[in-house]
Specification:
Layout lengths: L1 E8 L3 H12 L4 E7 L4 E6 L3 H9 L3 E9 L10 H27 L38
Antiparallel strand pairs: 1-3, 1-4, 2-3
Length: 144
């Protein structure tokens, strides 16, 4: 989990909406928050900060303020049974995330059927050209 804080230079609400729309399409995103007064965008999730900046720079000037791990709440000591249940839930969530990722990754594959070549005769070859001399043909025109 990473927390990325970016400073955006947008002038109107339309640009702000475009920025939010582009960032929300990234894979692995957990939360987005935008502070319009300070023009700061906070993005949290399993994302690459460079990908976020690359998407936003197409819309407006973007500057990275900070990149760091997202703060997780402090954990108290738990019972072993509860820890085992949480571990199972985490494994199930990871399996679902992997399945969703695989569906997104493999959805654009194209399958082509290979058909046998058609039984069509090949095109006829062009006739061989040869040069005729005027001696062979008395009616030939000679340009001198």
């Amino acid at each position: 989990m990473m927390k990325v804080i970016l400073k955006l230079d947008f002038t109107d609400d339309k640009t702000k909406q475009k920025a939010l729309k582009n960032v929300s399409g990234l894979f692995g995103l957990e939360s987005i928050s935008l502070d319009s007064k300070d023009k700061k965008l906070t993005v949290t999730g399993d994302i690459d900060p460079i990908d976020v900046v690359a998407k936003l720079r197409k819309i407006c000037y973007t500057e990275i303020i900070s990149v760091g791990p997202a703060k997780e709440p402090e954990k108290k000591k738990e019972d072993p049974k509860k820890a085992a249940e949480d571990k199972k839930k985490a494994e199930e969530a990871a399996a679902q995330l992997l399945k969703a990722h695989q569906q997104a990754y493999y959805q654009n594959l194209y399958y082509y059927q290979n058909h046998p070549p058609a039984a069509v005769a090949p095109a006829p070859a062009y006739p061989a050209y040869y040069q005729r001399s005027s001696e062979e043909d008395p009616n030939a025109c000679v340009i001198s």
